What does this fold into?
Amino acid sequence: MAEHHFHLKAHWPGLRNDVGTIEASHLQTKISIPLEMDGPGIGTNPDEMLLGAAATCYIITLAAMMERSKLDKEDLMMESVGIVDVTNSVFTYKKIIHRPTIILKEDASPEDEKRAIRLAEKAEKSCMISRAIEGNVELELQVTIKKTQGITEELNPS
It folds into this structure.
């Protein structure tokens, strides 16, 4: 069994509404409580970072699955939304919605489109971060398939 270790250093010199920093091998940024939670809103915050982890894990997993399946794509992009519920001053990360847009080649067949949707669904269940938060944060997937010169087809498999 191989293990990978990732390291992050955090520094928080002040009080609740001050600013700290985090540093990892390829990430260096300021951190604070977001404006939405009555903080200073400087740098990033845990809510954005969880959303970023989920989104990057998902899109990389999907791209890798498409490559292994030899499903030729023109492009792949995504928007993600994180929803945090506030009830009685308790903050709960409620839901993450991924909205990938898969742009296939103009000559892609209907079978290619169906395969792209299946891979999009499988990637959500296979991504390490999705598996880590499963049961705690609801995940929703809204897939859009386009062809290079084609018409947009919105699909919501969830």
